[in-house]
Structure to design on (194 residues):
């Protein structure tokens, strides 16, 4: 016999059996509705379990992972006017960023099963620090940028200077920028466009 005391079943006809136990009498429609709700709950449970397994796998296999504030820009094409000064525009969005294998993955949340975006490390041409960002309501955020050969520029920031330093160090190592001109040049396009 199915015990329904765990459910909040308002409006259902409760009665007592001959042996004094409470029971509920359901119509076929009500029974089918409960079965449907149970199936939905089982599906949600399976989805949450898959999300947790995915997060566990990502964190075990990732070189580096964590939340960063991200905004993207495109490098101007030759002959295009320079971009407008948008330093006052607050379009920084929190993203869960994962450095894994030959890619950087950008997830909306750490529990997402698929990334919103990704970039191959082989496509990165510059990595460099950006000036810190100070907002009245948020304090100071430290920043860096990643520029791809396609001209896509990821600007990344965090309240933690240590987190930014970890990302810069890991990316420079994985992209083999240690000691190269792109990583050491203080006038790279990451600095020029900020």
């Amino acid at each position: 016999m199915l015990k329904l005391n765990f459910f909040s079943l308002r409006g259902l006809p409760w009665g007592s059996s001959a042996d004094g136990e409470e029971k509920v009498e359901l119509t076929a429609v009500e029974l089918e509705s409960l079965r449907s709700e149970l199936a939905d709950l089982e599906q949600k449970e399976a989805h949450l379990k898959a999300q947790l397994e995915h997060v566990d796998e990502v964190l075990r296999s990732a070189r580096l992972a964590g939340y960063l504030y991200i905004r993207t820009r495109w490098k101007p094409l030759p002959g295009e006017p320079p971009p407008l000064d948008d330093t006052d525009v607050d379009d920084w969005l929190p993203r869960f960023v994962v450095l894994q294998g030959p890619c950087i993955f950008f997830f909306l949340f750490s529990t997402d099963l698929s990334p919103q975006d990704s970039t191959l490390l082989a496509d990165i041409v510059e990595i460099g620090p950006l000036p810190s960002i100070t907002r009245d309501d948020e304090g100071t955020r430290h920043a860096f940028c990643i520029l791809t050969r396609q001209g896509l520029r990821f600007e990344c920031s965090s309240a933690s200077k240590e987190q930014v330093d970890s990302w810069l160090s890991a990316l420079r190592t994985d992209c083999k920028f240690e000691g190269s001109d792109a990583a050491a040049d203080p006038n790279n396009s990451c600095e020029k466009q900020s």
